[in-house]
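Are you able to produce any protein sequence you like plus the matching backbone structure tokens because I've never seen that pairing?
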Amino acid sequence: MPPAALEAGALYIVLFARSTPNDYHWALYHHFSPTRGAKFHIRNICDAWIEGHEDTSGIHKEFLLMGFNKIAQIPGGDNGTLRSLVASTPFDTPGVTCRTWVLDVIRACIKARLVRCLSLDQLEQETKAFGFAQFDDTANNVQPRPVVK
């Protein structure tokens, strides 16, 4: 079955399953062309957070991918602005997690008017609920993974 369609220019919150139904790895994914995108995330390695930003054409194939939650449409001229906001969001501060870092990037994107969001808290709760609803299908490798618009 072909992967779910992603919109060129769209920015998504992407969740990846962990061992329990209410704990996820959070990332952002910008589908900047019809066949490629950029995954922005941080990873915890040996009690330290490191950046893991990379361009990819195979995010649909990533292990334990739960799905995509569209949060914005980024105009082509703002790709550099998005990358700059991602790069300037601190990830090595006390208490940071992949979830809080993604929310900090989104907060910066809201301030820069790349993302329109009335309530970041509501977006976080909706994303967590989406992850919880997708846990069993992810564990059973049901394909394709969903795209929420």
